[in-house]
Amino acid sequence: MHNKARLVIIGSGIVGASAAYHLAQLGWKDILVLDQGPLFDTGGSTSHAPGLVFQTNSSKMMTGFAQYTVELLNELEYEGQPCFYPVGGIEVAYTPERWEDLKRKHGWAQSYGLESALLSPAEVQEHIPLLDPQVIHGGYYVPSDGDAVAVAAVAAMAAFAEDKGAANFQGQVQVSDIEVRDGRVRAVNTDRGRVETEQVLLCTNIWAPVLAEKVGLEIPLMAVEHQYLISEPLPELSGETRAIVHPILRHQDFSMYFRQHAEAYGIGSYKHEPLLVDPHELGKTATRPFTPEHFDVAHRAANELLPSLKGVEFPQKFNGMFAFTADGMPIMGPASQAQGLWVAVGVWVTHAGGVGRSIARWMDSGAPGEDLHEADISRFHPHVFTRAYIQARCAQQYREVYDIIHPLQQMEHPRNLRLSPFQARLEALKGEFFESSGWERPQWYNANRNLLGEFGRDVPERSGWEARYWSPIQGAEHLATRQHVALFELSAFTKIEVSGRGALGYLEHMAANRIDQPVGKVVYTSFLDQTGGIKCDLTVTRLEADHFLVLTGGGMGRHDLAWMRRWAPEDGSVQLRDVSSEYCTLGLWGPDARRALEGVCEEDISNEAFPYYTAQNLKVETVPALTLRVSYAGELGWEIYAPSEFGRHLWDVLWEAAQPYGVIAAGGGAFDSLRLEKGYRLWGADIHTDYNPYEAGLGWAVRPDKGDFIGREALLRAREQELQRKLCCMTLDEAGGMALGKEPILDGERVLGYVTSANYGYSVGKHIVYGYLPADYASPETPVLVEYFGRRQPATVTREPLYDPENAKLKA
Ligand code: FAD
Predict the structure, then answer these.
(1) Which single residue of 81, 348, 383, 584 has CA 20 to 30 Å from 627?
(2) How many whole angstroms separate alpha carbon 130 and alpha carbon 368?
């Protein structure tokens, strides 16, 4: 075996092989792929997967991974045999609710450029004659879905990489350790000796936590058992020699799927309590004995849908294991624990083509070339790595694998992990709590129900799907904020201190806007990646000459911090400190915000003394607080940061001071519609690395001529080019129109884009929709359509922002 390599990939399942294949395509050489099992039937999950590839997913990233997997597998063959059977895929609706959901799914497919159709029960039966059309409401069909021959695909990709002289695959070599010295990967140790290397890509899936923890890397995933059975030959399929002809089939109301195996049928079932396996207790194969007691319900449902299965035996059956991650998404990217250590785990066969290509690009150029924030290894907050959390969440991901999930659906457990010092006050106001990164954040306050008397007529009613996780109170809170003043609980914000003699230079290198501003200035900026995509969206406040405060959202705080750490100089000239938990945060916003605050602070906070987009330390009664005159709600006011222990008192002081002005507490629901009226972009939805600041309408916040910074060259190129697409504001033309996000935007039958953000604008009296449109559709007054659960609604591109375009309120 080689004792030196440029890169060692650990794991030769479909993910490891796909990564090697794509690195080979990028011209990499000297890659060693090691697997503890025999090649290529290693005994890992890939060896046991029946290979169904259903591409549609609510996530654009996941759909994109799958679309590329299909494209790739269609091109591969092994020993003259295909690696993919493009037989199509059908998901059937057993309940009316599922039928509605399939319409939503059809919308996602359009949004992400995947051909799909809704079928009547009889049409479904035409595709799958074994199926009883009486028991379903219809089906959702994707003609390009199909079945992967996963092990053959691994072998084909390995052959490609080996033939190119790029990689060498070795079976029956178990890696026991990764050597890290001075923060860098140096070697891997195996049962066949040591291999010197500076880079390792961990593709060991269900086994990943075992090796990872040896280098201090925590990976929040668990192996979970899942049942698979293959029937004896069915008379209806007698004589069929082709591996698979019928479309693959999902029966999600019973958490099952089916595929044809020539004359027989295979059944996969998730319809049982999660059977979690500790990664340390795994053997060398991803299977366990079949547990018949877990198959009863699924068996009955299978017989009902496919009556031909009644009474047949299942000579092959087993519980196979694959990985469920804490949030259901893959985990990929560079590990911060050691330079040169990369991870790509928690990936299905379905997504392995796309994941392999993206991780290869990422390793090759430092940027994956597309938005991967949902899969980024740096996204997890520390509590996610606790065993209790991993077990609870991985089990729930398993339970919900085929569930109908509302975009605002809240996890039930674990909850109440991170509470702000205001919690008692929020509870007293009957806050309806939503979870975000472990924090409990009020979405609205039931104590504000009385506001409906004053504002209710401007809050359109909702019913059904769009009324879930929503209350008209949100609308009333929105309007009360615009009219009077409101307190918003914002403690989940991420706060990162940047200090040291190199702090300014470092931040100038990170940021696309100019950071060298007078002390006290707040700067709104993007951090770009090397391709000019928006990697982070945040504010930087200069507290002292060499001392800055970076403020970013709670959800993506870890991601942003990892990006900042990655680029921090190693010479000690810059210190980064995550001080999020040290400070609580309140937003005090509304036309009466100044009157309320000036009554309790010692300083002059007039517009002249405390202008917009500046920061000052204030004494708010007895509370020392850093205050920023900014507002994501688009109203006069301040973000107030105080040491956490002062939080409760701060709340009481402000609450008391603002009583004469009719202060209310307002929640996240109001916050979102307020920001959308103001056209403020939400990172992760409206903006991310797929888009550059010009496309996102943020060209005003970049200074490409200020000197060098990450992404500058790409930005300069983008500036020279004509814009091909643009983030646009649209409003739905009809009262009662609806969109929640991710719906397709069309011109007739042509899909133009999809909804990145949507909410009702209670002050402007319109349902607002944002999305990227081709440049020739971006002019105001352009008519488009927005499809919601199959219903096409007229909408019109409008000038933005819809509310206070002159910023007069903010600068008052
Ligand atoms: P694996 O294939 O498990 O590869 C990891 C490799 O790492 C293994 O070969 C292992 O031997 C090796 N390894 C681990 N530790 C070490 C070490 N220390 N040293 C050396 N080597 C090591 N997905 C779909 O998309 N569609 C399906 O229909 C589908 N059905 C499934 C049905 C079943 C029963 C199962 C079990 C899985 C199914 N999956 C399906 C999931 C899918 O199979 C996996 O998610 C996918 O194969 C994972 O690929 P991988 O390369 O990450 O992992």
Answers:
(1) 383
(2) 43
pLDDT above 90: residue 2: no
From CA 621, how far away is CA 599, in angstroms rounded? 9
Distance CA 94, CA 305 (A): 9
Which one, of 9, 71, 65, 60, lies nearest residue 34 by Cα?
9
**pTM of the full structure:** 0.98
Which strands make up the sheet holding 486-489, listed edge to edge? 615-620, 623-628, 637-643, 583-589, 486-489, 664-666
Catalytic residue among 147, 371, 537, 690: 537
Residue 762 annotated among the catalytic residues of the structure: no
Instruction: Round to whole Å and give the CA distance between 301 and 253.
Output: 9
CA 365 – CA 165 distance, rounded (Å):
21
Task: Report whether pLDDT(359) > 80.
Answer: yes
586 sits in which H/E element? strand 583-589
Question: Is 322 a pocket residue for ligand 1 (Cβ < 6 Å)?
Answer: yes
**Residue to substitute in 275, 349, 394 for testing ligand 1 pocket (most ligand atoms within 8 angstroms of CB):** 349
DSSP string, 426-471: HHHTTEEEEEETTEEEEEEEGGGGGHHHHHGGGS----GGGGTT--
Q: Which atom of ligand 1 is nearest to the CA of 321?
A: 36
Pocket probe mutation, ligand 1, options 205, 224, 359, 394, max atoms within 8 Å of Cβ: 205
- CA-190 nearest atom, ligand 1: 19
Distance 569 CA to ligand 1 centre (A): 38
Position 387: which residue type?
R
327 noted as active-site residue: no
Q: SS3 of 132, please? A: coil
- Rounded to an integer, the average pLDDT of 425-430 is 98
* Ligand 1 touching residue 205 (CB < 6 A): yes
Q: For ligand 1, atom 31, which residue shows the shortest CA distance?
A: 49
Whether ligand 1 lies within 6 angstroms of the CB of 378 is answered as: no
DSSP structural state of residue 7: E
Surface-to-core class of residue 541, CB atoms within 10 Å of its CB (0-12 exposed, 13-18 middle, 19+ buried): buried
CA separation for the pair 323, 350 (Å, rounded): 13
Catalytically annotated residue among 226, 251, 351, 373: 226
Instruction: Provide the edge-to-edge strand list for the sheet that holds 341-345.
Output: 167-170, 31-34, 7-10, 200-202, 341-345, 331-334
* 258 CA to centre of ligand 1 in angstroms: 19
Catalytic residue among 78, 112, 140, 257: 257
What is the H or E stretch that residue 251 is in?
strand 248-251
Which residue's CA lies nearest to atom 45 of ligand 1?
Answer: 348
CA distance 477 to 463: 19
Q: Is the CB of 175 under 6 A from ligand 1?
A: yes
- The answer, yes or no, to whether the previous bond of 801 is cis (omega within 30 of 0) is yes
Per-residue pLDDT reduced to its tens digit, 300-334 = 999 999 999 999 999 999 999 999 999 999 999 99
* Count of other CB atoms within 10 angstroms of residue 616: 17
Q: 200-202 and 341-345 as β-strands: parallel, antiparallel, unpaired?
A: parallel
Tens digit of each residue's pLDDT (9 = 90 or more) over 475-520: 999 999 999 999 999 999 999 999 999 999 999 999 999 999 999 9
Q: In this structure, what token pair is assigned to residue 63?
A: 């759909």
645-655 residue pLDDT tens: 999 999 999 99
Amino acid identity, residue 676? Answer: L
Written as six digits, the tokens of 324 are 């469920």
Q: Which amino acid is residue 351, in one-letter code?
A: H
**Distance between CA atoms of 770 and 686, rounded to whole angstroms?**
7
Residue 690: CB atoms within 10 A of its CB come to 19
Q: Is 511 in the pocket of ligand 1 (CB under 6 A)?
A: no
Distance from the alpha carbon of residue 206 to the mean position of ligand 1, in angstroms: 7
Q: Is the CB of 320 under 6 A from ligand 1?
A: yes
Q: Let me know if 690 is a catalytic residue.
A: no
Atom of ligand 1 nearest to the CA of 46: 47
CA separation for the pair 348, 98 (Å, rounded): 23
